[in-house]
Design goal:
It comes from Fomitopsis schrenkii. Keywords: Cytoplasm. Pfam families: PDCD10_N. This is Programmed cell death protein 10 dimerisation domain-containing protein. This protein is about 80% helix and about 0% strand. The protein is mostly helical. It has one domain. The model has no long low-confidence stretch (mean pLDDT about 90).
């Protein structure tokens, strides 16, 4: 049975954690950008979401 399953050790132990780590960094930067944009231009987030929904 083990011969039929692909070895996902590298995927599970290296690739996926690296992607998750980079994703956290990217999402953190995105959160900061949205917070700063909303501070500078109140309501900009709602306008952006409305544009996305309408298109």
């Amino acid at each position: 049975v083990d011969d039929e399953l692909p070895d996902t050790t590298m995927l599970d132990s290296v690739v996926l954690p690296a992607i998750a780590s980079e994703a956290r960094v990217g999402l953190s930067a995105l959160q900061r950008a949205f917070t700063e944009a909303e501070r500078i231009i109140p309501g900009v987030t709602m306008e952006l979401i409305n544009e996305i929904v309408d298109s």
